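Field: sequence (string)
Field: structure_tokens (string)

Example rows 1 and 2, in order.
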Amino acid sequence: MKKALNNLYYFLPVQLLLLHFRRNQLLLSFWLIIVLTITGHFAAHFGASALLLAPEYLGRINFTAMFLFGSALAVFFMTWHITTFIIHTKRLPYMGATRHAFSVYCLNNSLVPVVFLIFYSVASIRFQIVNEHNTVLWILKLQMGFYLGITFVISVSFLYFFRVSRDFFKSTLTMIARPYVWRRFIPRDNLDYEPDVLPVRSFVSSNLKIEKCEDYAPYHPRVMNTIMSRHHRNVIFAAFFSYVGLFVIGQFMDYPFFRIPAGAGFVLLFSIFMGFVGAFKYFMKSWEALGWLSFAILLSLAVSNKILDLRSVAYGIDYKNKNSYRPYDYDTLRALFTPEKYYADKAIAEARLDAWEAGLPSGDTAPLVVVSTSGGGLRSTYWTFNVLQYLDSLSGGALYKHTVLMTGASGGMIGSTYWRALHEAANKGLVNNVYERKYSDNAGKDLLNAVIFSLATVDLISPINKISFEGNTYHRDRGYAFEHELVTNTEGLLSKTIGYYTEAESKGKTPQLIISPTIINDGRRLIISTQPVTFLTQPEYSLKSEHPPIDAVDFQAFLQGRHPEELKLTSALRMNATFPFVLPEVKLPAKPFINVMDAGLRDNFGMELANRYLFAMRDWVARHQRKIIVIEIRDSREFDVILPAPESGLGNMLVDPLFVIQNDWEAIQSYKHSFMKEYSPYFLQHKVDYVTISYVPKETTKFAALNFHLTTNEKQDIYQSLFNRENQAQFNHLQSKLK
């Protein structure tokens, strides 16, 4: 037993594995991130695991999607082999005497890839059974596509990269990829000398037999240098090929045929990063730590000096002539949002309610309805749309006719906006039946795939990618990809500008939409509406104050002259749903730039803005003697917003105090809104009725993921929540009120 263990320890695959853990922690981190993503311990809120376990191509999980993902993963495997071969060749002197040295190295270095493939197949099959409800036959077909993709790329790699000796690209790259040329610019010292040859006794040969190392004579330095030069050229070529491939398909991101699965793009991007890290380690040697520090400093300087700007833009807005940007400061806001403007805009809002009431049938005394929706990614989009569609169907269309205002955060606003767009299209004869199930399916279609695909192929690879709209030129990034996919999913109904709805809203023919992302410069709310809304920018009690606390900005008033009415509706919705890292923050033209992110930072449920609107309209309510219903559509229950805290350990004790506000922010807002709702009946003469409809999962601890992707199982769980006993009681109550 001791001899067997001894032989195993000195077996090349085992020694290579130990070497990677000793020397290649940074390269192993790429594997770790992919594994943690699959297990749901990394980027779980973004739904990243689904991109890897069930990749989509042309909107479907199919054979082609798995083939493309397998191909991308094979590129990642080959990059791993080539990179580590370059770094560690001098530790393997007997390799130079073997035939097909690199092939032999790949066989012995495949322990990590093989273990990963076993792990991935088990995880993927389980995910597709549990979350996608696929049949066994279909899953086997998907796995066949996956392994066929891997086999294809690996076969091409060995037939082309390592068997063909000369071609134009290789000859060109050889001239610029010779190590000794670049090493002239990097200091060398005694620390660069690494004498630790791997103590290996046996290895797997090219004919898949175990052979002993002593049977091979040590390599000649000249032979080994030749092999090094060739394979260094190959890794440069592989990285170059991956870069060009991602760059090319990024130019065609608007065409679904060219849009490879996001998981595949993500893995290809990791391949480029791994090749870069390997080259960096090889060239820098003992200067590696200083090299990474210098790289980080240069990157930071590029961002701080706006050479590299990671922010996005709002499509439709005029960003030209930076010298004429309006200053964003308190004095400017105070001059714009005056008491006179406050009362004038309030009168316009009351006139709009008059027009809405005049358009109702004679004798209609049903309540005025305000809808507020919560954030929560695609689960909130899907949940909000299904609630509105279901309730409107129960009321015979009365819900839409009596809704005067819709506001909220993130995904919830996307769902309610799509619901409004359907009815507006139906009024023009463009939609026959707004209650068709296909519209509910549209609301639940994936948005994450396009975002991650763009991140891999455009944001980090092709910063020069641009698009023109209404005479303006903008950068294309994952924000644009999100909007393009949203328009496609909704069959073009959200392709309008916000100004398209101005007339219909002002005449009360369609609900007013107030989108309210957060200005992260100072925490103010940015209020985007087709109607003037200065009366929502500050509390009424402070109008006579010399320095009123202006806590919001009227988008149209502030950006007057920058064509604010031409803002694309999808851009407004994106700003309202800019979850950190998933979507880029948006900059608006001002001095300094106004940086905008998710509405949930300020109000994740829309209740604060809804109550301010009702307070401003209290005189109109008193005059017209009409009751009010506020429908709050939430992706979590009001009394059940905090999951049980884990048992405190040392890590929790150190970290929890730092993130307590971040982790409990939704709960803090929810409790504050409950407090606000207690007072509103008094200023509305007890004419208001709050109705809360909440997504309640079948298993109370297993909510649908908070991201822009839903599995089949999650969609079913969300839809079934409509028939939850608590929600059905609220639906019956609303139905009786709207008659």
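Row 2 begins here:
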Amino acid sequence: MSEQGFLHYLHNKTRPVLFDGAMGTVLNQRGVEFNHCFDELNLAQPALVGEVHREYIDAGAEVVQTNTFSANRYKLGRFGLGDKVAEINRAGVELARRVVLASFQNVFIAGDIGPLGVRLSPFGRVQPEEARQAFLEQAGALAEAGVDLFIIETMTDLYEIREAIQAARQAAGHLPILASMTYTRDDRTLLGDDPRRVAHWLQEAGADVIGVNCSGGPNQVLRILKQMRQAVPEALFSAMPNAGWPEQVSGRIMYPDAPDYFGEYAPLFWQAGARVIGGCCGTTPRHIAAMCSAMENAEASSTFNGPSLRTPEPVDISSAEQPTRLAQKLAAGKFVTAVEMDPPRGLSTHKLLAGASMLAEAGVDVIDVADSPMARMRMSPWAVCDLIQRNVGVETVLHFPTRGRNLLRVQGDLLAAHALMVRNVFVVMGDPTAIGDYPEAMDNYDLVPSGLIKLIKQGFNAGVDHSGSNIGQPTSFLVGCALNLNPPDPAQEIKNLRRKLRAGADFVLSQPVYDLQRARDFLKHYESENGPLNVPVVVGILPLASARHARFLHHEVPGIIIPEEILYRMEQAGEKPARTGIEIAIELVEQIHAFAQGVYIMPAFNRFDYAAEIIESIQPILKAET
């Protein structure tokens, strides 16, 4: 431990202070499974944790972070360790201290504080004061054990990180605080905040060093660092990227960035204004050693000018679009959950956003936003998608009907959606206006669904419009198409599906299914004639609300067939038919998991709490995948 204070050391050092890298990555490489409580190893296997600290110090780290990233009452409680918050945090500090003393080097100890793992109000059920108490419990134990500073990292919610900063100040007002947020592929936090807003927020919250960590690889973190510094040029900054975007290889999580490549960015972070650098997920002592070596070489080089005092220019990221999170999950073979929401009929979006927040807390992957369902007037679905993505942080799927749109409107609407960062679209014909609020409204269309899919996948995603004119840059849409798994005419349904797949459809969403054997038989029929269906199938689920609701769907909605045993269960449901409907839906989802790649829940009567309950009930199945 240094006899100087950390901030004094930071201000007087000519080059950035080098932190260590990932703890969990190295522990996993040494046989600890990701579903194990890493923090508990401070008590159970201290020698293993201490060895990681020692290797980072040997690699050149001037600061080691305690193995306490998840050592708060909420995350520890999932392992039955909620009563050991103070013990685990104190052990983490003492363990790091012993390793530092044994190294005979000038190394600081940073008390590591990560997210609570629960959502705060208004997006969740935990109140801000409850969150602050949880952070205070952890920060108090770290301060009492003798850390030199706090690092509050990998945060996604500005309100949560503010509570963490205030708790750390309350626990030990004299200790410096490094506060860092993480970003998604679109250079925004999970809740939709951009780097400039984050920088201002963290400075106003009282952080001594503000930064970006985790996120993507060094290139994205450098880009975000420049935007943050442009917003608050007088602040002190940190940059601690992942070793690239994680990839799943043979059932293991792998990070693509090699140490040498990672090290090349250390001088670039320095020149962009970072006073602290280090590594996050996927990094190892080799990555930190590469950063140390690169900075030493840069400092010795006569061509390196040190940090640039010029305000960085904004970086244009639009030409390097990344796949959506839904696209990544489908490509990795993960089972996805989607829930349909209808836009409001008026101006108020409070209920919609509250429902979306509840679904996010339950673990939904995407929220599908319908476009004028049943041909009834509703708010624009693009606006709703944008509101959900920015305010809730959940990716959306925009329903994009061809009915009622000519070629001009179709293409203009696509550009608008892309500009709003809405990149997942579900192409359908749409409900006829004759059944809706305005039966006299125009019902024409220039494109059938397969034609629109072709326009998007072979046109816009290649950088050209319908006429072949250049649109400036390619779009990056992921496109879904509709499928009836219980069709009255299987041959015609298969013919339509083949047309959509040739046009480039990336995934399939089905109508609600209750007879899973018929659905399996249809998919087998398709494969017997055409070979494997090489796109993910996401099966529709509509939770039944009552026996009357079930009879209506069975007798009056084309394509929906409800087996007799399910109809009988709903008839016998008694005073709580919706509870039986939820139980049936959960059973269906558990069976669908065996032959499809996701479920698309369409909650009747806007009962999003039912959808949330279904999603929460299947989380053990989804966690077993990883």
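free_text_note (row 2): Residues 6-300 form a domain with the TIM Barrel fold (CATH 3.20.20.330).
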